[in-house]
Amino acid sequence: MDNTPIDKDFYRYDANHRFAAMYPLLARQIVDDCGIRTGVCLDVGTGGAPVLIELAKLTDCALIGLDAQAEVLDIARENVVRHGLPPQRFRFLKADVTEVPLAAGSVDLLISRGSIPFWPDHVAAFEELYRVLAPGGTGFIGCGFSRYQPLEEVRAMRPKWTGDGDADARNDWKKDGYLDKVLARAGVPEATVQADAYGVWVTLRKPVSSQTVAE
Ligand SMILES: C[S@@+](CC[C@H](N)C(=O)[O-])C[C@H]1O[C@@H](n2cnc3c(N)ncnc32)[C@H](O)[C@@H]1O
């Protein structure tokens, strides 16, 4: 992570946030897609925890937000209170995606939105995320918007830099075949990559029969 000051306005999650209409729809879509409403939910690169906050409203999961920057986690804690949610349902961890301080097989629902462009080592990241995923668990990792939202709204919301193409290293992970290679090298057996007008999302599923390898 660099030392650029954080954009506090981006991390404050209230009705004025530029993605305020999207986060509840994305959370609804995630729950509809995987049917997970209990257990442990981990959000990697949680930022101000907007996705986690919306998942708290729809599920009974224990919620863990992980981020490499301590400062954004302070804002996430404020956002939890701002949304009238019980702080004891949330746990926040300052850590890198490549070193998640959680036991193998301990996460039932794994999400990560908008963080993957910043990860320095995608293979190490996916190895680690797959390690913490529980047998029978599902992960949604990507960048973009909810398919429950009209495309005109998505186009209006999309930040300008995502269109910069090859010139921006933050777009490398979206290049053709890149994620397939990363997932194979990370030893992830069941994953789908969906790239469309809503963004790019990887869905990971860990078979129920998977053995959890002790750390
Ligand atoms: C664009 S924000 C997305 C925040 C939130 N998930 C959302 O959808 O609004 C990206 C977040 O990823 C975090 N991040 C970047 N690199 C990371 C890494 N290597 N490990 C953990 N978090 C990271 C940043 O600190 C930042 O909070």
UniProtKB/TrEMBL annotation:
Q: Which GO terms fall under biological process for this protein?
A: methylation
Keyword annotations for this protein?
Methyltransferase, Transferase
Is Glycoprotein given among the entry's keywords? Answer: no
Please give the SUPFAM superfamilies that the UniProt record associates with this protein. S-adenosyl-L-methionine-dependent methyltransferases
Domain Methyltransferase type intervals? 42-139
Show the Pfam families listed in the entry.
Methyltransf_11 (PF08241)
Check the record and name the InterPro entries matching this protein. Answer: Methyltransf_11, SAM-dependent_MTases_sf
The reply to whether Transferase figures as a keyword in the UniProt entry is yes
Q: What Gene Ontology molecular-function terms does this entry list?
A: S-adenosylmethionine-dependent methyltransferase activity
Protein name (database record): Methyltransferase domain-containing protein
This chain's source organism reads Solidesulfovibrio aerotolerans
